[in-house]
Design goal:
heterodimer; A: 225 residues; mainly alpha; 9 helices; B: mainly alpha; Four Helix Bundle (Hemerythrin (Met), subunit A)
């Protein structure tokens, strides 16, 4: 069977495996999402509970929480995988690029769930202005895909490393800046009556570049495990 | 001159040229007429621009070394990448700090949330992450392979930092040397700036020679350490002999 024909079934199988694992453990639902909501509660306690201030900074705080706590999801995905499981996947002949894609797909689904539930909490707690909300239908998946690709790539780089759980957030956070900028500045541009397209383009380019980097480097990374 | 002798003498001459070059650049920086509007604080330009130039060069070389390592799997390219990344991080740090010192009398603050400043700080942390990753992986080939990928992904920051002053309306001035259109700087100031850039480039080459040699020695010592490992627990235990056709069950 040719490569491209097997690629998507393999990627789907990997994605299903990761989602099944999450369904059984419910770590994102019961730990990461509540943790993100707690962070949203802590911020006003630290900077003050002025309603106008919170309304102004609410969207930015939401995206920072998504970035920092979303990374925890990819850290967890990496740390639960044992070397034996990785070896088994390699010995089964799974295409490393399909493995990267499948993991990123599963992580995207989890991050979209995280964004929606924590986003609902942010709207309720900060009384966020939802002007231009249809654009969120594009912004939320773009951020999720970008973070998932970055998390999966960094997870592969830091696989089997003792300091991996500490290292992954450090690798992801600076590289995720274009996503954070695109999400926050795009929504701000709508509120200012300016165009959002250039910010969406920036995010789309980052997502595409990360996808290419993830797929092209999957095999060399597998060889270094 | 033998190869070994030339290898010994070349860095020594290069070191001398680098030190003299940097001293000359600093001399020109102090002797060049003061800039009309900013006055003496603008002399920071002669340290700031060469530092960030050197950082750009260093990170581009890291990118090249990373790509070459993945293509050839020769450790020499990994040595090139890591040596250059270390020097790049140091000089990015210098550029950030001297930029902050320059900013205080001109902008009134050490730090402002300007696109160029913020992205330079981000670039600094990306490559600090690259060095942190390397410290966590003891096995040289595994370390080289994974670091090479981060070295490639991290390079996306370089054009972002450089062109940020053109893409966003920022407080930071546009590029002085590497700008696509004409340069707007007076002759003597430009000459002093070019001398600084040239001197820092020679300094970079000299530092690279030393750091790459150190990386080679590290690799050799790692190999020797692995080869001279004494007996470990379990060495005395032999695998059970299995004879065909017989089973204990």
């Amino acid at each position: 069977m040719s490569g491209p024909v097997r690629f998507w079934p393999q990627a789907s199988a990997i994605a299903r495996r990761d989602l099944d694992r999450e369904r059984r453990s419910s770590e994102v639902v019961w730990i990461t999402i509540p943790f993100g909501a707690v962070a949203l509660l802590l911020i006003p306690l630290a900077i003050g509970t002025n309603e106008k201030l919170l309304r102004d900074i609410g969207p930015g705080m939401f995206w920072v929480v998504v970035l920092l706590f979303g990374v925890l999801t990819s850290v967890r995905r990496t740390s639960v995988e044992t070397p034996a499981q990785r070896d088994a996947v390699a010995l089964l002949g799974i295409d490393p690029a399909a493995e990267f894609t499948g993991k990123a797909m599963a992580l995207t689904v989890m991050l979209i769930g995280f964004e929606l539930l924590v986003g609902a909490a942010a709207v309720a707690l900060y009384d966020i202005d939802l002007t231009g909300w249809p654009w969120l239908l594009l912004v939320i998946p773009l951020v999720a895909v970008g973070l998932a690709e970055l998390g999966t790539l960094s997870g592969s780089i830091a696989t089997s490393v003792n300091a991996g759980p500490a290292l992954i957030p450090f690798l992801v956070a600076p590289l995720a800046i274009p996503l954070l900028l695109g999400a926050t500045q795009g929504i701000e541009a709508i509120h200012q009556g300016e165009g959002i397209v250039s910010w969406m383009l920036l995010m789309a380019i980052v997502v595409l570049a990360l996808a290419v980097a993830g797929v092209l480097t999957a095999r060399p990374l597998q060889e270094t495990r | 001159m033998t190869d070994a002798a030339s290898r010994r003498s070349f860095p020594r001459w290069l070191d001398i040229v680098a030190v003299l070059g940097v001293a000359a650049a600093l001399g020109f920086a102090l002797l060049t007429p003061a800039e009309r509007t900013q006055g003496t604080p603008a002399r920071m330009l002669y340290l700031h621009v060469p530092s960030i130039w050197l950082a750009y060069v260093a990170f581009v070389v890291t990118l090249a070394g990373s790509v070459a390592y993945l293509a050839t799997r020769r450790m020499h390219w990994d040595h090139l990448a890591v040596s250059s990344a270390e020097i790049g991080v140091v000089f990015t740090g210098i550029a950030i700090v001297d930029g902050m010192i320059w900013a205080k009398p001109i902008w009134g603050v050490y730090w402002t949330w300007d696109a160029r400043l913020t992205l330079t700080a981000v670039m600094f942390f990306v490559y600090l992450g690259y060095l942190a990753l390397r410290r966590t992986i003891p096995d040289p080939p595994a370390r080289a392979g994974r670091a090479a990928i981060l070295g490639i992904v991290g390079a996306f920051q370089i054009p972002l930092v450089h062109f940020s002053v053109m893409w966003w309306r920022t407080l930071h001035q546009p590029p002085t040397l590497l700008r696509p259109d004409d340069m707007q700087i007076d002759g003597p100031l430009l000459a002093a700036l070019w001398i600084g850039v040239a001197a820092f480039t020679v300094l970079y080459v000299a530092l690279m020679r030393h750091r790459m040699e150190l990386a080679r020695i590290e690799l050799v010592s790692y190999g020797e350490a692995i080869a001279t490992v004494g007996p470990v627990a379990g060495d005395a235990v032999a695998a059970p002999e299995v004879t065909a056709g017989r089973s204990g069950l």
